[in-house]
Amino acid sequence: MFLAPLALLAQDRGAAALAPLVNGLGVNVRVLMIAAHPDDEDTQLLTWLGKGRHVESAYLALTRGDGGQNIIGNELGEPLGAIRTEELLAARRMDGARQYFTRAFDFGFSKNAEETLTQWSRDSVFRDVITVVRAFRPHVIVSVFSGTPADGHGHHQVAGILAREAYDLSADTVRIPRAATAGFGPWSVAKFYRGASFRNQERATIRINVGEFDPVMGRSYSEVAADSRSQHKSQAMGSLQLKGVRFDQLLREAARVGPQDASSERSIFDGIDTTWGRFHPAMRTPAQHAALSALPTAFDAARASLNLLDPGAAIPALVRLQQALNAVCGEASAENPCATMSVDGRSMLVRHDDLLASMEVASSRVERALALASGVAVEVTASRALFATGETFRSAYAAFNRGKVPLRLSRRVLLSAGAAPAMLAGDARTIAADSAARDSVPVTIAHPGQPWWLERPRQGPMFGVPGRAGDEAGQQSSPVVVSFFEVAGGSFGVFTPVTYRYADAVRGEVNQPVVGAPAITLTMEREIEYAQAGVPIQRVVNVEVRSHASEAREVDVRLTLPAGLVADSAVRRVSLTGNRDAGSAAGAVRTVTFTVR
Asked: What is the pTM of this model?
């Protein structure tokens, strides 16, 4: 089983989610878009690719937008970067693409590429770009920017320059060895395009109608893209959802396949073998060749079984497809074309990277389709949103079978940042149709709920933690329970974040992810105070003491004062009640007052 933690899209449920998954099962090409900031991405193209053509697409932003504006609050710098990261992830849930970043910090406006590269470490940022390319393995790279002064902002220019260099060098293991890119091996990108919707329109070689209407969604791809664009709330990017024909334009700048004359192209995939037949050279046994040859028929059968009024009818065909995909790779052995090997403690991709990437996507789509067709829903809820790091608490677990076919819950695993995956106790059980399995599970949060890229101090305009090759949506700090189900001979996993769920009188149901915090935190009423030199002062200093622990605690609070200041008391002892549920938090907060002279 290729288990990939890809959550269902925010607006996709039931038949509206199942139809595109099933219809896209046989598609195995990938497109990577590269630009500099949140809001630089071409959401219309991403939506058309993902929703319209079922292409696995991704957006790589060099920065998190830390140096920009904020019209919804007063957060700037790293806090603004965290907000814009979440806005990008919300946009990706709309358009269906993955999201990646490098370690570059947005230090503000830059006049040109030369100035930008005096701040950023070119080698480090480029290494992050190459790592993403080798991990995602796109057949096509689309650069939003030209890499010239026409781009304006120096960050934009650098994004355009590095995108082209990534196309040229991602297969070069002499200049960029495997060890420099998290163990990912060389990858040759077939084609390189630049966006031409706002510049170089007269030179565009491809025009795409992104205003095409999708009858399942009931909207055009450009309408969905406007919804995606509107998620950039801190940047005032709210957009109208315009109907009708709308064109997106691209300029082919380089290609290793396809027609020599770029103007004769009809698709960005012209010349690229997008069939599963391209993997026959990687097969090792007659059984693998036979399984690979059978895939197109299995994909057709799964699509033919789709009945939006009876989703469960697709389960048998989806199970047969899952078994056919598993047969392509076969058992773990030297003859497995999807094999991996461990080098220096890392899982290193070997054999056939394109096949492995395509298998991961196809297997993930089959699993998600099985979950939708079976009608399963899982909830894991806690009594509050904040818990002390290292504390174990019980969360209510419920798995609902809302379909027509019995499900078997085989096992559950807790994933928590900073800790190894933990098997959760509980007998395997069968869940009959229209029923539920309920119990409670222990959850421990091993890591504070802070952005992963801020785990180490920033070093000037570069974050201290290298960019990661994984989709940003999978880097959550909240605990997640993975439930493994079996249905009609097939299997799938459901990823469920542990949440605090409550009813708001205005907003209705609210789900907050559960996160960890230090057991005791202190907040000064005023972080900075000024005093005139040589003039006596007497001031009140208020300190808020807050407990996130479930048990009651007594805490001593001390002031450390500079020479020339004294306090009325050096120590205050505070009694804090435990946080047993959301309503008990009031007793876990106390304000301590010192008088300083």
From this structure: 0.90
